[in-house]
Design goal:
Blueprint: H1 11-25, H2 32-38, H3 43-56, E1 59-62, E2 67-70, H4 73-83, H5 86-102, E3 105-112, E4 115-122, E5 137-139, H6 144-151, H7 155-162, H8 178-191, E6 194-197, E7 204-213, E8 216-226, H9 232-252
Antiparallel strand pairs: 1-2, 3-4, 3-8, 4-5, 6-7, 7-8
Helix pairs in contact: 1-3, 5-9, 6-8
């Protein structure tokens, strides 16, 4: 009788991950009832898993509000995981130079589970700070780094990504129709530069490129700036600097 060797072992571990994923998506700390509904898990089961996770430091329960937060134990895991990405250490000097040249925020992301995970962010020396945080995720279809990645997908990979996927609007400018997104991806393939024009965050403009060599995708980088600071001249400069940085990094990968 055939068996599925890829079937996850340990249903409690799967449930714990579902809870952590839900906590990572919520803007405010949820209650037991909200977690139960959010992950489609019976409340008694969710409570048992949460109680164990609380004992292990993976979540933290506020006894007064009865709300759950990410546990401090995850900080050490996150730091270790981020440190294990060789790409981050390799490209850091290049990103620092790009930040100094543009005076804007520079981002480094990798693809995980059909999303961009931000693994490094060099803040602009100017006063305005953007919403993205290291460890946070962005959609492939709405972010500059994500669209740069999608533009490099084969027809089969792109079809698999788009199949049955709802392109939800994050802002009024988000591309929510597959035809519009595919037309944008065609332009990216022609120019080598992806653009997020207030599609992921209002009033923020981003330019992105991938980092790849020998058909291996290492990640993507982007320049993010408040749109009001971006003149045509600065945009052209950013495109040139971003492409130069991409070429310099790929030469050492």
């Amino acid at each position: 009788m055939p068996t599925n060797t890829n079937k996850p072992y340990g249903t409690v571990l799967v449930k714990a991950k579902e809870i952590l994923d839900f906590l990572g998506r919520t803007e405010t700390a949820p209650t037991l009832a909200e977690i139960s509904a959010g992950v489609t898990m019976a409340k008694p089961t969710a409570l048992k898993v949460l109680t164990t996770m609380n004992e292990l430091g993976l979540v933290r329960r506020d006894d007064q509000t009865k709300r759950y937060y990410m546990g401090t134990q995850l900080i050490a895991y996150a730091q270790k995981a981020l440190a294990s990405f060789d790409i981050a250490g390799t490209v850091r000097p290049y990103l620092e130079r790009l930040r100094d040249e543009t005076q804007e925020t520079i981002n480094l992301g990798v693809v995980r589970d059909d999303q961009i995970v931000l693994i490094d962010k060099l803040e602009s020396p100017n006063s305005i700070k953007l919403q993205s945080i290291i460890g946070g995720t962005m959609n492939l279809y709405s972010s500059a780094m994500g669209k740069a990645v999608l533009a490099g997908y084969s027809s089969a990979q792109l079809h698999q990504y788009l199949s049955g996927r709802e392109l939800k609007a994050l802002t009024p400018a988000t591309l929510t129709k597959q035809t519009a997104l595919q037309a944008d991806l065609k332009r990216i393939r022609q120019t080598g530069i992806s653009i997020d024009n207030e599609e992921n965050e209002p009033e923020v403009y981003c330019l992105g490129v991938t980092l790849q060599k020998s058909n291996h995708l290492y990640g993507a980088i982007s320049v993010s700036t408040p749109k009001y600071r971006l003149s045509d001249e600065r945009r052209a400069q950013f495109v040139r600097l971003l492409l130069n940085t991409q070429h310099a990094i790929e030469s050492v990968l």
